Amino acid sequence: MNSPVPSGTEAKDEEAPKGPWLVRRGLVPRSRAQQVLALATFVNMIGSGVYMVSAALYFTRVVGLSLAEVGVAMGVAAGVGLFSGVPVGRLADRRGPREVYLWMLVIQGVAMGLLVLVHSYWLVLVALCLGELARSAGGAARGPLVRGIGGSELTRYRAYLRSVANLAGSCAAIAAGFAVQFDSHSAYVALIVGNALSFVASAAIIAALPSLAPIPSPPKASRWEVLKDRPFVAVTVIDGIMSIHHQVLLFALPLWIVGHTDAPRWLVGASALINTALVVLLQVRASREVDDSVSAARAMRRSGLAFFAGMASIALVAGLPTWVALVGIVFGIFVHTVGELWHTAGSLELRFCLAPAHAQGQYMGLFGFGAGLANVVAPSLLALFCITWGVTGWLVLGGVFVVTGLVTPPVVRWAQRTRQFEDVEQLSEAS
User: Fold this and answer.
1) Does the domain formed by 20-206 have CATH 1.25.40.10?
2) Among 136, 144, 146, which residue's Cα sits nearest to residue 87?
3) How far apart are CA 158 and CA 153, in angstroms?
4) Helices (DSSP H) in 262-317: which residue ranges?
5) Rounded distance between C-alpha atoms, residue 313 and residue 319, angstroms
6) pTM for the full predicted model
């Protein structure tokens, strides 16, 4: 049985057995614990990526649901899942993040397995809600685990994990593409079963990590202190608005290319590949200088400007010749992805550095609520702004990103001031 890591200390582990060149190049994390968590992330995201590509096809072609029923069920499940992050995050703070995260992975595996067995709409809805509740809760529990395992290399390690996740997503898309090509009952079932097994495998890998002992709460700490932390709530709202950008290239761009430009249709698939490749190659580098709240706020501000520039480049090619549209859209994808790299670096730093160590889980849960809500409302907003309103809508939404980025530094300074005041209060009480 793994012995817990002493409270308030970072997880210590033996040096990685890999050669130093791999470590220096950032291809392999430095410690064994970091390698284990990275492997679990890769396996988990392979399964999740396969599911995202094939879910709608599975439910319509195998289960027999209508597209409308699938949309409603997945939307309801996503909404239900939003509310599990804070309470389960608090449980992870008090009981230990490794154990809670491990059980959330197991529950997700069970939920995916149920989808193979049930074929009525309401049972499918229950299984989806169970899976989304565990997914959202698992994200909240994973935050303190990453913090403990990352230790003094936390900034670099967070970026590394995101690169690993994007690489896994690309591999999953390729694997799912082969299965979809067969377009058979057994192929779709295999994808769902594979996703269920990926959760179980990830849980088995996580079990190899050391336990992280909970960090004691200060004597007067509130039970649900994150909900009373107005500056952090404001930062969560800001990040939620900025997180809408994730759906710009996935949802709005394909519709824009096909319906409003003369760009070649193959650019729809190429755009995802360009975005993923840049994130895999550049996320660690983009995160190197983002190691405190000030640099994180600046990164968020730059990301808003980049989103506007990228979206303007994509929007303004409507009606232009094919080669101009191709160049403009590819340039917009590159600039938008640079904004994504900056936003991710800033967002990851803020959610860690503004959260007290003893309440990392519940703070992660609230931050995840903001990003999750953005994913729920983004398709409707993007359909209105970018497709219905056209060029004007692209520019207006880009302007929203700019304004949101510009207000980030003062809001972060507000959050920092309140934390300094709390630190002084706690020192006075201790003395």
Assistant:
1) no
2) 136
3) 9
4) 267-287, 293-315
5) 13
6) 0.80
3-state helix, strand, coil in the chain (%, to 5): 80, 0, 15
> For residues 356 and 333, what is the distance between their CA atoms, to the nearest angstrom?
36
Closest to 145 (Cα-Cα) out of 194, 199, 205, 200: 205
Q: Which among 153, 181, 154, 164 is positioned nearest to 48, based on CA atoms?
A: 164
Q: Taking all residues of the chain, what is their mean pLDDT, rounded to a whole number?
A: 85
Helix then strand count (H, E) for the chain reads 17, 0
Domain coordinates of the chain in residue numbers? 20-206, 225-425
Model pLDDT for residues 231-285, shown as the tens digit of each residue = 999 999 999 999 999 989 888 998 899 889 999 988 987 888 899 889 888 888 8
- Integer-rounded Cα radius of gyration of the chain: 22
CA–CA separation, 262 vs 211, rounded Å? 55
The 10s digit of each residue's pLDDT in 358-398 is 888 888 888 888 888 888 888 889 999 999 999 999 999 99
Residue where the block lists tokens 């730059």: 302
Tokens 């992280």 belong to 212
CATH topology of domain 225-425: Growth Hormone; Chain: A; (1.20.1250)
Cβ within 8 Å of residue 357, ≥6 positions away:
8, 147, 215
* Interior angle at CA 90, CA 86 and CA 92, nearest 5: 115
Tell me which residue of 299, 358, 306, 301 sits closest to 332, measured CA to CA: 306
DSSP label of 31:
B
DSSP per-residue letters across 355-410: S-GGGHHHHHHHHHHHHHHHHHHHHHHHIIIIIISTHHHHHHHHHHHHHHHHHHHH
